[in-house]
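Protocol step 4 of 6: structure prediction from sequence.
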Amino acid sequence: MTMKVTSKTFIRKTKRGNILKIVREHYLRDDIGCGSKICKKCKHNSERPLVKHQSINTDFQDKHYLLVDTNVVLHQIDALEDETLKNVIILQTVLEEVKHLSHSVYKRLMDIIGNYSRSFYVFVNVYHRDTYVERVRGESPNDYNDRMIRVAALWYNKHLDDKIKVLLLSSDEASKAKAINEGIPTMSLEQYVSGLNNVTLTDKLSNHSCMVEETSKEPIFPPHLTPAKIHQGIKAGKLMQGTFFASVDNFLEGNVFVEGQEKNILLQGRENLNRAINGDIVAIQMLPESQWSAPANLVLADYDDLDLENNLNIVEKPKEKYPTGQVVGIIRKKWRQYCGIIQHSLVENATRHLFVPAEKKIPKIRIETRQYDKLKDQRVIVSIDTWPRTSRYPLGHFVRSLGKIGEREAENEVILLEHDVPHSKFSDEVLGCLPKETWTISATDFVGRKDFRDLDICSVDPPGCTDIDDALHCMPLDNGNFQVGVHIADVTHFVKPGTAIDLEASQRATTVYLTGRRIDMVPGLLSSNLCSLRGGEERLAFSCVWEMTPNADIVNSTYTKSVIKSKAAMTYDQAQLIIDDQNQDNSIALGLRQLNKFAKILKKRRIEAGALVLASPEIRFLVDSETRDPLDVEVKQLKETNSMVEEFMLLANVEVAKKIHSDFPEFAVLRRHPKPPPSNFESLIKAAAHLGVELNVDTSRDLANSLDKAVKLDNPFFNTMLRILATRCMLQAVYFASGTKTYDEFLHYGLAAPIYTHFTSPIRRYADVMVHRLLAVSVAVDNTTPEMLDKRKIEALCQTLNTRTRMSAYAERASVALNTHIFFRGKIRDEEGYILYVRKNALQILIPKYGLEGTLFLSPRKGQLQAATFIYNEEEQTQRCGEIVFRTFDPVSIQLSLDSSNVQHERIVLKLVKPEILNFSVPSITASTLAVQLPQKNPLEPCDSPCEPQLKKAKI
């Protein structure tokens, strides 16, 4: 039965001047069940998730269910996720308030509710006749919600009589006092957990409710301004807001990206950083110009590493100063869960410990745990709760353990979590969208499609590739031209807009390739089977078919859905052998040779137009088929067939971009690579000039020509290094909605293409799925959806894709770093290296064979003695020790080994072998993969591969 309880009328004037009368009516019900299995009054407890009472608690000995308020959910979600807590009532009032205040916590709460084994029951109190109350005049929304919660808790206890109690858990002292006064059983979650004697659950409790400054301690940091003062300061122009990016090389430096500012705002020293954590949105106040500074050019790892304040002070007065400021408040925290280890402790039975995050940009976190002996050799997850002025480190709490340090599964989990890669199993709802495994193409599937099954189509991929999303064909025409086809897997046939599988794919955004493991964007039935263009099997495709002259000019274009049957699925090596073997003259061989000729013409045109050919040392591990341990490592060797596939994928992407932008000028999903500002090249130009090499960076063509000419006969790797460093000067290539930019902003700088998109990899990139849908509407084989024509939604989704794409690239690189560590266990090797950067206290060295970049400290670290003296020349960017001078690009010999003396800090170390320096005794240099240790010039991060190479499974 339902009844109307309230009716409110509002009068609103529309933009056209019309008067609109709005009537809101609130209906209540008496048939909403309480959810308890033992209740005999409610006739509508269909699911009955509250199946058992909570275990007896020493501080609350009655049989009971739990009812939590909003603050407990917001601040103690880690504890609520623990399996110990079951049979919990979540009020609709709490659910709606959490959704409004924190989407991430709301999603985690919904995941718990969806796990029926946890018995979390949502009680719709706002529509129940006995638990709804109207808001009184002058009552704040927070007080009203708290009153709704108390009313529901009181009703539950009366409704269930004395059969079972409902215990209200609240962290709000005022609300808790009112509840106790009204006769409601109430306590804090901390008090309740203490009565369970559960050490693991105790460690998961947030310190948020204990955020009282320790007044007895001397403050280390300045106070933060209140939100009201920050708002006033920004409005008056006295303060600026932006995103804080911590330095990976120097934990006492960072910069703030402020929209509209030509340069980032430099922050130096812990007082000016003022408790900002990487990613935070901060309010900053500019320092007087007399206090402006420049980056210290030091590599500083930790408070315990060096006499840091002195090191910052020994920096000579910079010739060029940067706008410098200080953090005066945190506008929005970007805190998340962090993976890492607990720092080794010599104190027995201690409960306070330091947690060392895996991410170098994050400070150590102080936590309390009684499980040190159990966790000391584990990878663990920790959350930050607060950072008081009186604490050198932020305070946090233990969340969970991932496994033993060094174990592959635990380390892979760290990589995925640290880079926010969605990697849980596909839900039943997603899997329910899939066709049967025995699915085959039916007669209805041919409607609106071309039948290309008789064409000599083939695919060319890396060895072991199972998600084949592109194939090619080439055949001569009677008029002397050629028909060339690029055929792409038709993923959108199976992934329909708005379905569970579509929403999941859009959030995953991309397939992630770790060493020995792949995290699919769509389930394996599609990615490795029904969508994969496997040889000899009929598959649905989206085809670009061109008529091309012998000079590779397109005279006719056709875009069509199709059915194909690949005649061969080849590796790059196999395709290369066919091209090179002139004795093979079948149609496949002839087609490959012609495609290869066309590719060379297309590449020459791109380079003449200004496309860049940059470099990044890519390595490949040969792994054991059973243990998955790396057996050997090698630099990837590229063949002509790699370039052949790349050129036709680039061509298809450019041509499709033109087509969808022509038909959808406001809503096309495109990809742009902005031109980097000249300031990004300054240090590279300076370093090259010291070696007599002049770089012109006015245009991409000028840069390409300069790089081609930059050759040194005495250093064969010089040109490659120059291209590697040029890559680091680039901005990130990003997806965007065409209606949000002017046409001249569409430019893809690295490709020298005025317009570009991603069309050729829909199995592993969601951007391509969006483009396929647009192209399908363009060629009249599908209908539009409202989402396709909503510029705001498209742009928001593009931002998600950009973030996921960038983080997946970092995850893949971190996977290479992990396998490099595993590879070096028990090995010592001498290898050739090159100096990438000369710092004030260190050299950063590249080891090309392993894609490693390491830091060699030249000044003694804490506890070390060293007789050798190094003199740094900032103007020439050199380090001198006696007669030996170290410059950028110089070759050196380095010994590589793995230091496993401390299980919590296992690391690859480098030792200088040549040139040999007497009395140089700094023994340990931490190394990371080149790809993991990214430059910090721009908050948008460097472009992974500004040339957008279409090599299979490269992130482009």
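Step 5 (inspection) to follow. Confidence is low (pLDDT under 50) at residues 209-213, 306-315, 922-956.
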